[in-house]
Amino acid sequence: MSPQERLLFHKKYSLPMMEDMKKKIDKVILNKEIEPNDDEGDVYKYFQNYYEKLCAFCHFENAPICNNKRERMLKSIIRHRKNSLFFKTQLGATVADILTSILFTAQFNNINSVEYLQDLMLYQAHWQKKPEE
Asked: Does the global pTM surpass 0.70?
């Protein structure tokens, strides 16, 4: 589907389901049918609080339905930050930061990380003169 067709599809089919779900959740919370502080209550409150953002894919073209890619990327950054507590020197931390940045750049651009690092090392003089390439 084109982005416009997908948006119309979601407006026609997904949005009514989301609105129906919101009505049911609002009713359950209003009638106190669940314990507000347990896991289910937390999920319902989350849905209420973020309803507009959760429905963005029904209102905007090309809005992503899931953010798994971004979550995985954040997980890697969090893991790096956690591991950085064990660097013995500032130089070690700096090198790790540079390598992490390079690897994320390669991953973001769908480039093989090993080949990217090799290319950077082999043609270092060229890339220093023309980094925009």
From this structure: no
